[in-house]
Write a structure and sequence with these properties.
Length: 408
């Protein structure tokens, strides 16, 4: 997936610029046409923005912190619900927002809307900041005349997902610290401790035990051929990153992750919770099922599951309901399939999906906490094993030397 800068005209004939992610120039043009834009120029490389170009330049920088985006969205919602016109609202946000990137983006959006662009056009011009889900909900709210209610749901979703990510980071903080300590211990023992004993052991006429031979061998490889090790690591990392940028690479990586023992089921439940939550919000916001699946395809966060949405959409276009294609789709849990079927039959699909999302959110929270508690002791044992291995590598030959000295 590459970035393409484009110049196009929207449905109102307003000339606009922006950045879009696509597989090729032809694919980028197709996406623009599907959004109602008439592309004038599409070229590889990030760039664009509206007339000022400030937001596009800012989009190329590091991502905006989730808290800043949530605060921006809350302020937008509050001002809109107070009845302030959009252009004036964005000018107020430009003055109130402390984040420099959001200031530039608010200014650019205000100019775009004054030039005739829709609110969706203004948000969609910054794909690195406002996700496909974010923009689709804004478009649904704008089209239905219920933007205030839609923004309430959007704020809830942003806060909910931020809380889940924060909980996961918090649960994994201790295991990360232990892994860091493990890496430091390995480096210090291998590069600072072992070298001091290599000369002693090489001069001694004793048979070195296997832990010592392994430790000395590792020290020799890392100290003599460090550039080879570094080259292999760098080449492997670059190759992996290039591979996962391809559609097939992302698919096989995410499919493998879903099949990992212990971790796979937790990730699957997390994706199911995200699917149910986003689908419910899009449905209650007036987005059609086909359009909702388009949004989910780009926001679900797992390429293996996202690929199933294309097949489901094909069956929906044949006149089938969503429950039937879900039954034959891979990776969707029976709970999701059954609850969607019940919701589709009863006309309460969004309510059923919300129940599924809450259920899996709780399961994921407990599972992550349990995994963190289980990983901690395992890593402590691994740390002890590394230290113990190097201790044996040092003290076993030292013990032999002491015995030889005693016999003399």
């Amino acid at each position: 997936m590459a970035s393409f800068s484009y110049t196009a005209r929207n449905e109102n004939g307003v000339k606009m610029e922006g950045v879009i992610d696509a597989e090729s120039t032809e694919a980028a043009r197709a996406i623009l046409f599907s959004r109602g834009y008439v592309p004038l120029e599409v070229k590889a490389g990030a760039g664009g923005g509206f007339s000022l170009g400030l937001g596009a330049l800012a989009d190329a920088l590091s991502p905006i912190p989730p808290k800043e985006l949530i605060l921006f969205t809350k302020q937008f919602r509050t001002l809109f619900q107070a009845g302030i016109p959009i252009t004036q609202l964005l000018q107020v946000l430009q003055n109130q927002t402390e984040h420099k990137r959001l200031k530039a983006i608010a200014a650019e959006m205000s100019q775009a809307i004054m030039g005739g662009a829709t609110l969706y056009d203004a948000f969609r011009a910054h794909p690195k900041v406002f996700s496909e889900l974010y923009c689709s909900m804004m478009r649904a709210g704008e089209a239905s005349g219920a933007l205030g209610e839609v923004m309430d749901r959007l704020v809830y979703l942003l806060e909910h997902e931020h809380k889940i990510r924060s909980d996961i980071k918090s649960a994994l903080r201790y295991p990360k610290m232990v892994m860091g300590a493990l890496a430091v211990a390995f480096f210090v023992l291998l590069n600072l401790v072992i070298p001091k004993f290599v000369l002693i052991f090489s001069q001694a006429r004793i048979t070195l035990p296997w832990p010592t031979k392994i430790a000395i061998g590792m020290h020799y490889v890392f100290s003599t051929y460090w550039y080879v090790v570094l080259a292999v690591v760098v080449a492997g990392t670059v190759a992996y990153k290039y591979w996962v940028r391809t559609e097939d690479g992302r698919y096989w990586r995410d499919r493998l992750v879903l099949r990992l023992p212990g971790v796979g089921p937790v990730i699957q439940k997390s994706v199911m919770a995200r699917f149910a939550s986003i689908f419910a919000i899009l449905q209650s916001s007036g987005v059609s099922v086909l359009d909702a699946l388009d949004v989910l395809n780009n926001t679900i966060g797992n390429a293996a599951i996202a690929r199933e949405f294309t097949r489901i959409q094909d069956q929906l276009r044949e006149g089938r309901g969503i429950a039937e294609p879900l039954r034959t789709a891979r990776f969707f849990t029976p709970l999701v399939v059954n609850m969607v079927a019940i919701g589709e039959e009863s006309g309460s699909l969004d309510a059923m999906l919300n129940d599924v999302a809450r259920h899996y959110d709780e399961e994921v929270e407990y599972a992550v906490a349990g995994m963190a508690e289980a990983i901690g002791p395992v890593l402590i044992v691994a740390l002890a094993a590394v230290v113990g291995f190097f201790a044996l590598a040092i003290f076993m030959p030292m013990w032999d030397l002491t015995q030889m000295a005693g016999k003399r």
